[in-house]
Model the fold of this input.
Amino acid sequence: PGVVAAFLVPGSPLPLMRRDNPPWTPLAEGMEKARDALRAAKPDVLVIYSTQWLAVLDQLWQEKPRISGIHVDENWHELGNLRYDIRIDTSLSRDCIDGCREEGITAKGVNYDGFPVDSGTITACAFLNPHGETPAVIAANNLYFDFEKTRKLGEIAVAQAVAQGKRVAVIAVGGLSGTIFRREIDFAADRIASDGDDAWNRDILHMLEKGDAAGLAEAVPLFAKDARAEMGFKHYAFLLGALGGSFAGAKVLAYGPTYGAGAAVVEFRL
Done:
């Protein structure tokens, strides 16, 4: 039991919906490489944290045994629908809720028909777990939780999985620099919005590759401010907590733009 694989992946549906667009093709191919690595690790459960599932009161965990349907992305509805069918490890979800409460974090499960699953979770599952063969535990992004509290959530989730004797793959869903183009652009001409954002993204990816957790601890607050990192890069905080605060390094499987914002597919070395 324990973490057998960990990935940071983009939540934008663009590489999924239009993988034929040259700037997005590498991201789609990177996700497929991550899927192959995930399958090779043979996890019992996927622990997913998506910056796009927003919570404002309690820490929410998906608790419905199966969530399925058709989703229309709020930004890219003209590109078509996203179908999803995700199995949930309800036993582990319940233990994550209990684990949060034991740490003084108010938490509850979400279990009702028609729940609005976010594009990031759907995109990650469509690429990495397309047939739903591995059940998932899905944690919300509480807007009021800071980096440290989010890190604690990852720690709690893995501790509960280990207590159940399960092999875990951690999937942190979110982007890098957060500036998108505010005007309509030709999809084929997509690029990172600024040279400064690109430089920041590459610096962060380089530190991930080296396993420089200490350097990242200093850099992430500046990265969040200067490059408007998506949700303050809290998806990395969740992953870091799940990994026990350190990792040996990482491999960048893909890096590119998603309508100006930065995105990367990163496989972590444990």
About this structure: The first strand starts at residue 2 and ends at 9. The two ends are 14 Å apart (CA to CA). The chain is about 35% helix and 25% strand. The CA atoms of residues 53 and 140 lie 5 Å apart.
